[in-house]
Amino acid sequence: xxxxxxxxxxxxxxxxxxxxxxxxxxxxxxxxxxxxxxxxxxxxxxxxxxxxxxxxxxxxxxxxxxxxxxxxxxxxxxxxxxxxxxxxxxxxxxxxxxxxxxxxxxxxxxxxxxxxxxxxxxxxxxxxxxxxxxxxxxxxxxxxxxxxxxxxxxxxxxxx
Length: 160
Hints:
Layout: H1 2-28, E1 36-40, E2 44-46, E3 49-51, E4 54-60, E5 69-74, E6 81-85, E7 87-90, E8 99-105, E9 108-115, E10 121-124, H2 129-144, E11 151-157
Antiparallel strand pairs: 1-4, 2-3, 4-5, 5-6, 7-10, 8-9, 8-11, 9-10
C-alpha cells in the first residue's frame, strides 16, 4: 500500500514537471503572433478533416493564448477550417521563411508542421489515426519489398 502511494506521488510529480516544461516551451515559442498565408495546391487533412486545395490562413486559435492551439482556415470565405492542438518542435537553425510541412503518402497529404519565418521553434501536429495507418502500410510494404505508398515530405512556403 505504501509503495503504491509513493508511486502515485512520483507520477504526479513527473506530470507536474512535464507540464511546467511544456508551458515554458510554449511561452518562449510565440512564433505565430501574426497569421500565415499559404496557397496549398492539393487537398490535405488536418485533425481527421479533409480540406480542399486553396488559399489558407494559419494562426493562433486565440491570440492571447500562445501557439498551442492553431487554426487552419480557408481564406476564400468557404468556411473550410479546423482547430488543432499542437506540440513544440525545435530546430537548431532558425527558419529562413515561413513554411508548412506536409507528409504525403501516395495522393494523401497531412499537415505535419507549421514554421514562422525566423523561428527556431515550430508547431507539430500529432498524427491522426488515418495517417498512422498509412504510415504502417508504408513500413509493411517496405519490409515486404512491395510497391505501395511511400512517405514524402512536401514543404509549402507561406507568408506573414
